[in-house]
Amino acid sequence: MSMLRAIGCKVGWHDWGPVGGDVAGAHHTCRYCDKTKRVDTGKPPEAHDKSAIHT
């Protein structure tokens, strides 16, 4: 990692990569320092009960 990129990541100028997903939800990872942030879609999590019996 270059010196300028290291300073950029320290002050919050991350280069967010593509959205990745896992059990915990979607997230971005910085291409340089590996910091992660959650992706907020503004929607509630999808329910597991697709039949809508327990809503």
Provide structural commentary:
The chain has 55 residues and is an alpha+beta fold. It is built from 1 helix and 3 strands; from the N terminus they run αβββ. The chain has one helix at residues 3-10; strands at residues 20-22, 25-29, 36-38. A hairpin with a 6-residue loop joins β2 and β3. The radius of gyration is 17 Å and the shape is elongated. It starts with a helix and ends in a 17-residue tail after the last strand.
Question: Which labels suit this protein?
Answer:
20% strand; 55 residues; elongated; 1 helix; three-stranded antiparallel β-sheet
Helix and strand composition category: alpha+beta
Note the run of SSEs as H and E. Answer: HEEE
Q: How large is the share of residues in beta strands?
A: 15-25%
The strand line-up of the biggest sheet is 1-2-3
Low-confidence stretches are none
Radius of gyration, rounded?
17 Å
Instruction: Report the helical percentage.
Output: 10-25%
Biggest beta sheet summary: 3 strands, antiparallel
Q: Count every helix, treating DSSP H or I runs of 4 or more residues as helices.
A: 1
Shape: elongated
DSSP, total strands? 3
Note the gap between the termini: 50 Å
Integer average pLDDT: 78
